[in-house]
Amino acid sequence: MSSTIKTARTKVKRLPERGVYDPQVLYRILDEGFVCHVGFIMDSQPFVIPTGYGRVGETLYLHGSTASRMFKSLARGVPVCVTVTHVDGIVVARSAFNSSMNYRSVVILGTATPVIDPDEKLAALRAIAEHIIPHRWADFRPPKAKEIKGTSVLSLPIREASAKVRTGPPHDDKADYALPIWGGVIPLRTTVDPPIPDSEAAGMAVPPNIAHYSRARKSS
Amino acid sequence: MSSTIKTARTKVKRLPERGVYDPQVLYRILDEGFVCHVGFIMDSQPFVIPTGYGRVGETLYLHGSTASRMFKSLARGVPVCVTVTHVDGIVVARSAFNSSMNYRSVVILGTATPVIDPDEKLAALRAIAEHIIPHRWADFRPPKAKEIKGTSVLSLPIREASAKVRTGPPHDDKADYALPIWGGVIPLRTTVDPPIPDSEAAGMAVPPNIAHYSRARKSS
Hints:
The structure is a homodimer.
Chain A: E1 19-20, H1 23-32, E2 35-42, E3 45-56, E4 59-65, H2 69-74, E5 79-92, E6 100-111, E7 113-114, H3 118-132, H4 145-149, E8 151-157, E9 160-166, E10 184-192, E11 196-197, H5 208-211
C-alpha cells in the first residue's frame, strides 16, 4: 500500500486539525466526485478549469481534446494542482466570524505526464468513463483510432497530496451560546434525478447502471 | 450596465459555441453557487483552493483568515483565477468519445485587491454572509473589531471573465443512433436537507431563511 507525502507545500497550515493525509481517505473523496478543478500557469497567469477525471490506484487520469489549450499546455509537463471539493453543508454560527462550511477537499500537486502507450491510454480512458458511470465501457460503441488519437490523456501521481475535512456543528464563542440565535448545519448533497432518454432512446430499457445511478462509491 | 471583456485569455476557444459573455448570465451562475476555486501561484507552483465568495454588482469578494497562506499571498496583488462550476448532469452518449457533462462554469481572471476601507470591508463581509444565507446578517451577533481585523477581504472585478455552458442531450455520431445503446442525460442537482440544530439551538424556532433554504437565487 502506498502513502501520500506530506510536504511543506501540501501540509495544511491553517486549522491543521482539518488536515488528512491517509491515502484511503483521499481516494474516497476522489472517488465520490468526477469533476476536478485543474490549476496551471500560462504566461504567468494561473488558470483554473473544471474537467472530468478517473482514478486507478495511486494515479489520477485527466482527459481532454488534443486541441484544447489546457491539454496542450499540460502535455508539456508543467506543474499542476488538481483540486476536488465536496460541499456537505453550511455551518450556521451565531456570528459571521464563526460561520463556516462542512466540506471535504483534496489537493494534489505535481506534474502531469501524457500517456503515450496505447494500452495504458485505452485503460485510462476506460477508467475515466467508468469512474463517471460504472460498467459503461461494455455498452459503448468501441472507440475509433482517430477518437483515441484526438484525445489527450494525462496521468498525475497522487503523491504530494492532502485532504482537508470539516464536519459537525458550529464552534461558537462560549458567550454566544447564551444568545437567542439559532445555530446548526444546513446539510447539502448532490441528488440524481431520473434519467432523461434522448429521442432515439425513448422507449428503450434504461440500463441498471443508469437507472440506479448514484455517486456513492466503493473505494479500493 | 456593465459588460465583461472578452480577451484572448478568456475567449472560449474549444467548442466556442459553449462560450457566454453576457454579464447577466455570468452573475446568475455566480449567484447560484457560494464556493469558488481560487487559483494562484506560489514559488512557480499553481495552487487551487476552494473558498466562499460573495458578489456585489460587478465585484466578487473573497474572505479568509489574515493568517492563511493563500490570503497572505493574494493580498500582495498577484494574478488570480476564480472559477465557479455547477455540474447539472452526465451526458450519456453511445460512445465514450461523445460522452460529456452538462455544466455551467464561470472563469474570472484578474488581480485581487485587499479591501482596506472599514465600511467597504464590513459591507463585503455582509455581502459574503448573505450570499450564502440571505438576510442572515441581522441575526448574527455583531462582529467584533478583532474579528474584522483578523479577516482578510479581497475584491476582484468581474471584468475579464467568461462562462461556458453545455445543456441538452448527447451529440452522437449519426451512425451510432442506429445502435441498440441507450443515450440521454442523468440530471444532477444540489439538494438541501432539513437543517440540524446544534445542542444549544434544539427546541428553538428555525428562522425562515434557514428552514426554507434554497440555492435558487434572484440575480440583480
